[in-house]
Amino acid sequence: MKREIIQTKDGSTTIYLPDWEESYHSKHGAVQEAYYVFINNGFSLFKEKPIAVLEIGFGTGLNAFITCLEAEKSRHNVSYVGVEAYPVTLDEARKMNYAIEISPRSVSVYEQLHQTDWEIPINITENFTLTKRKQFFEEINDKEAFDLIYFDAFGFKVQPELWSEDIFSRMYLALKPNGVLVTYACRTSIKNAMLAVGFSIEKLPGAPGKREMLRAVKGP
User: Fold this and answer.
1) Residues 39-53: what's their mean pLDDT?
2) Tens digit of pLDDT for each residue in 138-159?
3) Integer CA distances (angstroms), 162 to 75, 137, 181, in order
4) Domains and CATH numbers, the chain
5) Residue 79: other Cβ atoms inside 10 A
6) d(CA 28, CA 26)
7) What percent of the chain has pLDDT over 90?
8) What is the pLDDT of residue 39?
């Protein structure tokens, strides 16, 4: 499928799929949405202990990169698993301007996220360990392994099967008790799928350009 590099409204880049009319990140601002949804409304809730994060849709590595930066800033140990069935190329990753926009001294860290081997844990920094898994979401079978899930799949309009009860059941099982899932989406069918598998859900104001987002919590 054809992929193009485009600039979003906050100046940061993303990958656009013209055949689907879909982009990897919000056209209203890739970096600002990533921080708002996944850091401000997810990662920031966990400050007292090491944290295990599962990302659904590793993609450009933006969410992993900003989480790595936050881990180093707070000296918070993070074990991060990024799942991706169709990885971007290293050349595509190098065309992303995230490191320049966010932390120019960390260009090598961003590139390392994409250069590391798949399927094995790699210490990217003192406080951040990354495992990339080349895997379809419906193959995830982890049990109570994660404190936090970044659910960053392509949108419902192009891949509704990724927002199904089956997928959210897998997410629920993968979370530890009191674990949290955050996503940029807030469609009624998505909320219903989350509720059906046992999540408690909370609607939150969305990132710039979007009205609402969802945060889901697994009970104790």
Assistant:
1) 93
2) 999 999 999 999 999 999 999 9
3) 34, 7, 15
4) 29-217 (3.40.50.150)
5) 18
6) 5
7) 96
8) 97
